[in-house]
Amino acid sequence: MFQFFKRVQTYVESELNAALDKAEDPVKMLEQFMRDMAADIRDAETAVAKQLANEKMLKKKFDDANSMIEKRQQQAIQAVEANNEELARRALEDKQTYVKQANDLKSTYEQAASDSIVLREKLAEMKREYEQMEIKKDSLKARAESAKTRTMINRTMSSVGSDESRSGFERMEEKVMQYEAEAETSEDLRAGSRSLDDEFASLNKNSAVDDELAALKQQFKKE
Q: Measuring CA to CA, which residue among 100, 120, 109 is closest to residue 2?
């Protein structure tokens, strides 16, 4: 499991590059890599816990064997003091059994303790690497989002200044100018189509105003 974790951590960069080449989402792949690493760490924690339990069990058996060695030694002394040679012999024979057991357990326990130290160090290293990858993942995600935003803005800006947009704007400007020209033309046509009666009516209207103005002036002179 440690080797698998190391393998994943080693080629993350190459996998990300491949993902970009295939137009895959690098952010989603980063999240998947982190989930894989987290699963590896959980497996490693389980393995280390089992190893520590095994070490603890061997330590207990080793300590129990040494306790029995000491106990049978004291019992042999007690039997000798009681002039019971047969009982002393049996105590010493049983003591030798525990001595052999303790010797066998000693090497096994020491190896288990050494393995526990190595596994715990590897687990700690895995967690440190995971934390580093977590930081790197956040950085890569931010870079990916920034790149997406820049691409979107650049595409939007390029479409705003495109020939199609410019020509469309110019067409609308020409239409406005055409509307203005048509309005001016219609006003000229209306002025040119005034009837003779309209002109006389306007003339009479102006004459009435002039007569009224003259009457006011004459009134002021009398006063």
A: 120
Count Cα atoms within 13 angstroms, Cβ side, for 69.
14
2-160 belongs to CATH 1.10.287: yes
CA distance 132 to 128: 6
Largest CA distance in the chain: 175
Q: How far apart are CA 57 and CA 78, in angstroms?
A: 31
Q: Cβ(165)–Cβ(159) under 8 Å?
A: yes
C-alpha separations of 13 from 30, 35, 61, 128, 133 in Å: 10, 16, 48, 18, 11
Per-residue pLDDT tens digits for 41-73: 999 999 999 999 999 999 999 999 999 999 999
**Domain ranges for the chain:** 2-160, 165-192, 199-223
* Per-residue pLDDT tens over the stretch 76-95: 999 999 999 999 999 999 99
Rounded to whole angstroms, the Cα distance separating 2 from 9 reads 11
Pinpoint the alpha helices (H) of the chain.
Answer: 2-10, 12-21, 26-81, 85-160, 163-192, 196-222
3-class secondary structure, 84: coil
The Cα–Cα gap between 110 and 8 comes to 32
12-21 vs 26-81: helix axis angle to the nearest 10?
Answer: 160
The pair phi, psi for residue 194, each rounded to 5°, is -65, 135
